């Protein structure tokens, strides 16, 4: 098997110091392979975003290792890490983070601008990305003039513009209604399936989670369950392949997660 | 991010909140404006001085005056009377005048080719050809070399000649200075017992007043001044000690012998000054005034720099998310720092360009109005109150940009330090 694109070993993240310290991640070890789609699911406060930030090299673990393509990243210089993020990763956030003062096209091409790509090439690649997401006609609009779904499509275009290896999405459908969510989910999964982009999604939405090849279920800073295989949406009886030998209460939690999804 | 993109971003960011930027820029404009005016004032006056003194041919002269007593300037209360000290009438020392003995000493010094002396000459009146009599006080005869002429030139030092200031032209009923040349005046001088003696003098020049204060009164020739002084001394009982206001010593090869002569003079309790020394003293005063005024402008700039700090800190706070996003998307700390300090520099450039521009316009327009022929300062020959000194302007521009950059470093460092996660979590 090839080297995993992302790999963690005994990953620990502690916030704060002394009596106020909080163990957000309690020693996680897992691998994400190239081209895979992985959902990180769990209740609010379980440490999903913290984990994603560590994987995306936005933050440093208190202890443990994150390796990118088999190389531990802790020894890299901040500048190299910045460049890596710029070239290798794409980001989609729940709150969009679009710059209201700039046009849609300018927002989409921001990663290229940071990378130092020339204006003409930026615009060309930006238009191409917007076309892929059927947003080309909005290129000159202000980013604030768009609907939620359109905004998230712009964000996805921005995340794709540098042809990333890994696409990180933190609650990408958290601010969208269910119909729009569906569209965004399909776009993300098509990207993973058709373009071989590794997809790491943090989500509450188990409709989205169930469409991913693998799910890491988190609780209180630990991965309590790992499920493999795309499940039929909202099926309570879907086979649970991961987490053999886990204690019962944890399994119950997992089930309750399944139930919550069966609206 | 490319430098060009950084610059463009910085520019568009500063234009984003126009009112705030404008207010910050105004503070800089005030500083730049004031600095431009004060430095232009200094430059203008110094250029005037250079122009006036620059054309002098008599360069080989050292002007000699008695050295001031060391404690003459700053003494605590009056000195006590000392009956032993007495008064030495032969010695001009301490009286502010040169004695005949002093002049002899000067004549005897090495490298001194000749000595002209300035005597105190008191006039009764000057009488115009039409019989009108006018009160007058002579300028120093030795100041003839410093005068600016509207017509004619300096008197021949050995002849009974005189120059008149421009405003005296009315005694001939004319406005054309050329008309005054060749006219004859009657010079009347009083003697010690109040009798008046008259003699004739020829008008050979018409002077314009200069900033050095020369040419506002009639300038006699040396011979004429001495004639008047002789008349003043007539009827004096006993021997009147000869006293001179100053002496002009002509030096062979001044450049080589200047220091030697000055040292020799100092050893005799005398003080020697060349024209250049006098210009230097004058310019030193102008420079000091310029610096003091510029100091106030610098204080204004300092205040303005806090405006930049404030504006940019606000901007960094407001744009926390944007900064976080840029950092998350791979912008390095150094680039974020550069982006924000560039915004400070942009504000600095806007403020200095506008301020310097307004300062130059205000300076030249005011100068034009004040020193026009019929303006309030039109009477001074060749006076300009405002001058363009490209180095000073360049210096002001650079200074403001440096100040702006320094002011920007604090907010820029704040921005660069922002943690992308914290920034993106910011609600
Ligand atoms: N900067 C921080 N300082 C202290 N505690 C934090 C910080 N960030 C997150 N936490 C805590 O860590 C836990 C996990 O947070 P997070 O990873 O955001 O959870 P999730 O994304 O699953 O909702 C939460 O209890 C949160 O309060
Ligand atoms: Mg979260």
TrEMBL record, chain A:
Residues 228-263 are annotated as: Disordered. Residues 6-245 form the ABC transporter domain. One of its GO terms (cellular component) is membrane protein complex. The keyword Nucleotide-binding applies. Keywords: ATP-binding, Nucleotide-binding, Transport. One of its GO terms (molecular function) is transmembrane transporter activity. PANTHER family: ABC TRANSPORTER ABCH.1, IMPORT ATP-BINDING PROTEIN. This is ABC transporter ATP-binding protein. It comes from Nesterenkonia natronophila. The lineage of its organism: Bacteria, Bacillati, Actinomycetota, Actinomycetes, Micrococcales.
Automatic annotation (TrEMBL), chain B:
Pfam families: FtsX, MacB_PCD. Keywords: Cell membrane, Membrane, Transmembrane, Transmembrane helix. InterPro entries: ABC3_permease_C (IPR003838), MacB_PCD (IPR025857), Macrolide_Exporter_MacB (IPR050250). One of its GO terms (molecular function) is transmembrane transporter activity. Residues 21-220 form the MacB-like periplasmic core domain. The chain crosses the membrane at residues 21-43, 291-316, 337-365, 385-408. It is found in: Cell membrane. Residues 296-420 form the ABC3 transporter permease C-terminal domain. GO terms for cellular component: plasma membrane. It comes from the Bacteria. It is a multi-pass membrane protein. Belongs to the ABC-4 integral membrane protein family. This is ABC transporter permease. It comes from Nesterenkonia natronophila.
């Amino acid at each position: 098997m090839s080297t995993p694109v992302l790999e963690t070993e005994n990953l620990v993240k502690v916030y704060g110091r002394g009596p106020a310290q909080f163990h957000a991640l309690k020693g996680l070890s897992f691998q994400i392979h190239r081209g895979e789609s992985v959902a990180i699911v769990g209740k609010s406060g379980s440490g999903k975003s913290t984990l994603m930030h560590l994987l995306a090299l936005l933050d440093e673990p208190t202890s443990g290792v994150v390796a990118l393509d088999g190389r531990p990243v802790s020894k890299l210089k901040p500048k190299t890490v910045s460049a890596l993020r710029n070239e290798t990763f794409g980001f989609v956030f729940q709150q969009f983070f679009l710059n209201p003062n700039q046009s849609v096209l300018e927002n989409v091409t921001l990663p290229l601008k940071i990378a130092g790509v020339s204006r003409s090439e930026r615009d060309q690649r930006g238009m191409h990305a917007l076309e892929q997401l059927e947003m080309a006609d909005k290129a000159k609009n202000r980013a604030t003039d768009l609907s939620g779904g359109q905004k998230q499509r712009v964000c996805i275009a921005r995340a794709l513009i540098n042809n990333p290896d890994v696409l990180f999405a933190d609650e990408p459908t958290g601010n969208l209604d269910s119909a729009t969510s569906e569209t965004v989910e399909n776009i993300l999964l098509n990207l993973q399936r058709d373009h071989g982009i590794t997809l790491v999604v943090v989500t509450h939405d188990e409709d989205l989670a169930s469409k991913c090849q693998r799910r890491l279920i988190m609780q209180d800073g630990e991965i309590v369950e790992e499920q493999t295989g795309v499940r039929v949406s909202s099926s309570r009886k879907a086979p649970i392949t991961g987490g053999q030998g886990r204690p019962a209460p944890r399994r119950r939690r997992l089930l309750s997660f399944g139930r919550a999804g069966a609206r | 991010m490319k430098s060009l993109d950084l610059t463009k971003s910085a520019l568009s960011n500063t234009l984003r909140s126009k009112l705030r930027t404008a207010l910050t820029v105004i503070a800089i404009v005030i500083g730049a404006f004031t600095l431009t005016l004060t430095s232009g004032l200094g430059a203008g006056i110094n250029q005037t001085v250079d122009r006036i003194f620059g054309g002098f041919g008599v360069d080989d002269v050292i002007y000699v005056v008695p050295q001031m007593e060391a404690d003459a300037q700053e003494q605590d209360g009056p000195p006590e009377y000392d009956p032993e000290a007495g008064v030495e009438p032969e010695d001009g020392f301490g009286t502010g005048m040169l004695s005949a003995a002093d002049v002899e000493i000067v004549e005897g010094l090495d490298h001194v080719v000749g000595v002209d002396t300035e005597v105190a000459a008191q006039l009764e009146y000057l009488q115009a050809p039409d019989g009108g009599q006018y009160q007058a006080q002579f300028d120093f005869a030795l100041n003839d070399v410093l005068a600016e002429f509207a017509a004619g030139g300096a008197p021949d030092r050995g002849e009974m000649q005189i120059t008149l200031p421009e405003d005296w032209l009315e005694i001939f009923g004319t406005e054309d200075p050329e008309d005054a040349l060749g006219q004859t005046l009657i010079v009347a001088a009083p003697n010690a017992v109040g009798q008046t003696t008259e003699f004739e003098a020829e008008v050979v020049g018409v002077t314009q007043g200069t900033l050095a204060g020369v040419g506002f009164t009639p300038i006699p020739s040396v011979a004429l001044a001495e004639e008047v002084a002789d008349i003043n001394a007539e009827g004096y009982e006993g021997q009147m000690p000869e006293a001179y206001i100053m002496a002009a010593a002509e030096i062979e090869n001044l450049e080589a012998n200047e220091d030697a002569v000055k040292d020799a003079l100092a050893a005799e309790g005398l003080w020697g000054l060349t024209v250049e020394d006098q210009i230097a003293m004058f310019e030193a005063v102008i420079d000091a005034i310029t610096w003091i005024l510029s100091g106030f402008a610098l204080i204004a700039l300092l205040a303005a720099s806090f405006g930049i700090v404030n504006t940019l800190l606000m901007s960094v706070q407001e744009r926390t998310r944007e900064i976080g996003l840029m950092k998350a998307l791979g912008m390095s700390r150094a680039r974020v720092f550069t982006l924000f300090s560039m915004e400070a520099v942009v504000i600095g450039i806007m403020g200095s360009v506008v301020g310097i521009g307004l300062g130059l316009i205000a300076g030249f327009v005011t100068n034009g109005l004040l020193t026009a022929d019929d303006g309030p300062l039109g009477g001074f020959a060749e006076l300009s109150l405002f001058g363009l000194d490209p180095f000073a302007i360049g210096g002001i521009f650079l200074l403001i940009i440096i100040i702006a950059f320094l002011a920007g470093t604090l907010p820029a460092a704040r921005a660069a330090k922002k943690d992308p996660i914290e920034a993106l979590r910011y609600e």
